[in-house]
Amino acid sequence: MAADISNIDKNKLPSHIAVIMDGNGRWAKMHGKPRVFGHKNGVKSVREVSEAAAELGIKYLTLYAFSTENWSRPAIEIAALMGLLVETIRKEVSTLNENNIKLISIGDISKLPAKSYKALLEGIEKTKNNTGLTLILALNYSSRWEITNTVKKLAHEVKEGRIDPEDINEHLISANLNTATIPDPELLIRTSGEQRISNYLLWQIAYSELYFTNVYWPDFRKTHFYEAIINFQNRERRFGKISEQLSKG
Ligand code: IPE
Ligand code: IPE
Ligand code: MG
Predict the structure, then answer these.
(1) Of the residues 70, 149, 199, 231, which is catalytic?
(2) Which of 83, 157, 180, 216 has the fewest CB atoms inside 10 Å of its own CB, making it the most exposed?
């Protein structure tokens, strides 16, 4: 039975959902088409999930769009993905504004092709005053890259005498990641049946609930998104405690 929005408890919504959009290539293959066809069809799922998150009142949605490891793919696929990014951002900006969605990004975006970088910055600029959902695109992102940068940054601060090594704590590390202004995701969804993290938000998902579905990303619809949230809402998040302690807080 398809999951229905009415089964979602609006008082128990995650504030941040992170998604690993996976399975575009296999979806295309299943349809006897080149991989790029899968990426093109994945855009519809991005639209659906962003809209669903905005409608529900979810505050943050992070989508893994391109990992640092994805540079190892065939050049033609990388070019198609980067082109699709430009096209999609340009086409969707007005819809983002209609839905009060603010676009931001994490990752080493300055290394994107100039055209993609420019389109991204334009999208960010044009949606910066929106106050609803924050849509975070992880682009040329990897968690180890992010953590390495943070360590480097803090090492410089220590060297220059601005902080003491003893000042370094979890809070300071979080505050120096790309995601400094974003709460940790309560829920991480990965599509396509793969059950791995692929260098995504390693620090931030320390206590996230993980949800894996066999659905390929281009087939992922609002109802699949609701299903993941309902599944999340039926879990008990214990944070190291035992069940009996939880009601007492
Ligand atoms: C996810 O789908 C999209 C990106 C990584 C950009 P894939 O392209 O990884 O699809 P599969 O995993 O090969 O099916
Ligand atoms: C993870 O998917 C990256 C994105 C979704 C952008 P991949 O398909 O690249 O992951 P692996 O390499 O199979 O783990
Ligand atoms: Mg994949």
Answers:
(1) 70
(2) 180
